[in-house]
Design goal:
The chain is of the alpha/beta class. The protein folds into 2 domains: 4-100 and 203-432, Adenylosuccinate Synthetase, subunit A, domain 3 (Adenylosuccinate Synthetase, Chain A, domain 3); 104-199, Adenylosuccinate Synthetase, subunit A, domain 2 (Orthogonal Bundle). Helices cover 32% and strands 20% of the residues. The chain contains 13 helices and 20 strands. Strand 19 and strand 20 form a beta hairpin. Helix 3 crosses helix 4 and helix 5 (154-174) packs across helix 6. It is globular. It binds inosinic acid and magnesium ion. Magnesium ion (MG) is lined by residues 12-13, 39-40, 299. Magnesium ion binds at residues 12-13, 39-40, 299.
Length: 436
């Protein structure tokens, strides 16, 4: 069996949750390597809907081990709540969940800083999920962050929290004219919470590497998407982690030689939540159809997602940055009623065409998409599970996307449930999963 990274090729919300849930049964370990509870991975099983934020999607498969890697930032309150919510729905969580001792903890003051920073940015605000993700990663990079492993040592924990709060109080008071926070209350809370999560914390790099040495397989679950990556996304309108496939190694403590394949999840159109450039954004009827039919509301914040046409510039870039071997195309059925479908080939700005993603935020903001217009299929693809039953024009759309990037499509999702998927024969996925 192979070890596969599954990542988002757009601005997140490509439908990774469904794809990972679908693949999870074939792997032994499912691991998150970045981000935090800003993510929202939706899985529909029967008439039950699960939204996972921090816990790997594999948790819905009782016999699998789920790992929250060192690259993730963990809000303990959110973790405890998510565990409780899942348990209420009958999901078993005990020693099937492991948290890296090197994962950083999101503290209540990170949430405060996230909010005050956003308010101070005014019109230039990023539109974060407000969950303290950015400030927690800042603390990590500033070398003053609190690791999950610190929860095991009361003295170290309290010293670190106290030092952090001293600095934060200075910033709160002097920069944001806000009241100081009381270290005592936060220390008491974290000590109490530590007790309920200590049992999950371990050396997850050691665990994964040992398991791989013994022939177990690993599914690396990306969160957010390439265009939200801190290095490669539409900076500064990005999240604070590396969402790209290569970070699966750093974020889990495994060598690059362990990764056998990269699957990019790509939606048949594009969405974005939060602010920042979005060249193919639609503000007309077509955008409204995608928004409504695709039920494009943020799984974490409930915000309405911005919608637009498929952006070939973004896809080409994501395939390159991640070294994508194969694509899983999602939400094809959302486009069933569109008579004409546009695919962006490049951005035109001051007479020049950019077919490779430009860095310049001005080009991204002002560039006009150059479209290739394709015919819609005007027939239902909902729930289809066989490639041959797709309408010819839907096949043409899929083929057009494959040819554009010379990257094969391995899965086509035609509905939110696991079963509503077309497995395309002869793709790299067959080899990875050893499907004859
Ligand atoms: P943060 O990750 O909360 O700091 O938010 C930074 C940007 O990333 C904002 O535009 C968010 O809307 C976006 N973002 C963060 N997580 C997700 C996600 O899981 N899906 C889509 N957008 C996200
Ligand atoms: Mg999401």
């Amino acid at each position: 069996m192979s070890n596969i990274a599954v990542i988002g090729t757009q601005w997140g919300d490509e439908g990774k949750g469904k794809i990972i849930d679908l693949l999870a049964e074939r792997f032994d370990i499912i691991a998150r390597f970045q981000g935090g509870h800003n993510a929202g991975h939706t899985v529909c099983l029967g008439n039950q809907k699960y939204i996972l934020h921090l816990i790997p999607t594999g948790i819905l498969h009782p016999e699998k081990i789920c790992v929250i890697g060192n690259g993730v930032v963990v809000d303990i309150t959110a973790l405890i709540n998510e565990i409780e919510e899942l348990k209420k729905k009958g999901v078993v969580i005990n020693d099937n969940l492991l948290i890296s001792q090197r994962a950083h903890i999101i503290m209540p003051y990170h949430r405060l800083m996230d909010r005050y920073r956003e308010e101070a940015r005014g019109a230039k605000r990023i539109g974060t999920t407000g969950r303290g993700i950015g400030p927690a990663y800042e603390n990590k990079m500033a070398r003053s962050g609190i690791c999950a492993g610190d929860l095991m040592n009361e003295k170290v924990l309290i010293d670190k929290v106290a030092a952090n709060i001293e600095e934060i109080n200075h910033v709160l008071e002097k920069v944001y004219s806000q009241p100081r926070i009381d270290p005592g209350a936060i220390e008491a809370e974290i000590l109490e919470q530590a007790e309920s999560v200590k049992g999950y914390i371990t050396d997850t790099s050691l665990f994964i590497n040992n398991a791989l040495d013994h022939g177990k397989s690993l599914l690396m679950e990306g969160a957010q998407g390439t265009m939200l990556d801190i290095d490669h996304g539409t900076y500064p309108y990005v999240t604070s982690s590396n969402c790209v496939a290569s970070n699966a190694c750093t974020g889990l403590g495994i060598g690059i030689s362990r990764v056998d394949g990269v699957m990019g999840v790509i939606k048949a159109y594009t969405t974005r939540v939060g602010n920042g450039p979005f060249p193919t954004e639609l503000t007309d009827k077509s955008g409204q159809i995608l928004q409504e039919k695709g039920n494009e509301y943020g799984a974490t914040t409930g915000r309405r997602r911005r919608c637009g046409w498929f952006d070939g510039v973004v896809a080409r870039y994501a395939i390159r940055i991640n070294g994508v071997h194969t694509l899983a195309l999602t939400k094809l059925d959302v486009m069933d009623t569109l008579a004409k479908i546009n695919v962006c080939q490049g951005y035109k700005w001051k007479g020049k065409i950019f077919s490779d993603l430009p860095y310049d935020p001005t080009v991204l903001a002002e560039g006009e998409p150059v479209y290739k217009e394709l015919d819609g299929w005007l027939a239902s693809t909902s729930d289809l599970t066989e490639y041959n039953r797709l309408p010819q024009k839907a096949k043409d759309y899929i083929k057009y996307i494959e040819d554009m990037f010379e990257t094969p499509i391995c899965l086509i999702s035609t509905g939110s449930e696991r079963e509503k998927t077309i497995w395309v024969k002869g793709s790299p996925l067959d080899n990875w999963l050893m499907i004859p």
